[in-house]
């Protein structure tokens, strides 16, 4: 499977924050913006409010794995930013996966 393209530029993040839509649940916040592309670009963020570096990296790994499993089922042509909320530090993998599915269904991005 081809690895999804990562959002890395600060200008891309700012554009999605200002022009895109957002949804949230207990563990995640999703910002998304429709683009005229045949692929998705994705970014994962865990701020210092989540915890120390070990907890932040764990949060990003959980989000990336959940996204990897459902990426073939996501509509193409979007820029996505997943932001970890502070509650994620106590969450198990299954909780994060359910939150990911919930937020993708709520945004109508899941096929």
Commentary on this structure:
The protein is an alpha/beta fold and about 110 residues long. It has a single domain, classed as Ribosomal Protein S5, domain 2 (2-Layer Sandwich), CATH 3.30.230.10. The protein is built from three helices and five strands. Strands 1-4-5-3-2 form a five-stranded mixed β-sheet, sandwiched between helices. The longest helix is centred in the middle third of the chain and has 18 residues. The chain is globular. The two termini are about 20 Å apart.
In DSSP terms (H or I, runs of 4 or more residues), the helix count works out at 3
Low-confidence stretches: none
Number of strands: 5
State the helical fraction.
25-40%
The oligomeric state of the chains shown is: single chain
Strand content: 15-25%
Compute the gyration radius: what is it?
A: 13 Å
Main beta-sheet strand count, sense and barrel state? 5 strands, mixed
CATH architecture identity: 2-Layer Sandwich
The helix/strand order is EHEEEHEH
Supply the CATH class: Alpha Beta
Q: What's the arrangement of strands in the largest beta sheet?
A: 1-4-5-3-2
**Terminal Cα separation, in Å?**
18 Å
Mean pLDDT across every amino acid position: 93
The CATH topology is Ribosomal Protein S5, domain 2
Structural class: alpha/beta
Number of domains: 1
Write down the overall geometry: globular
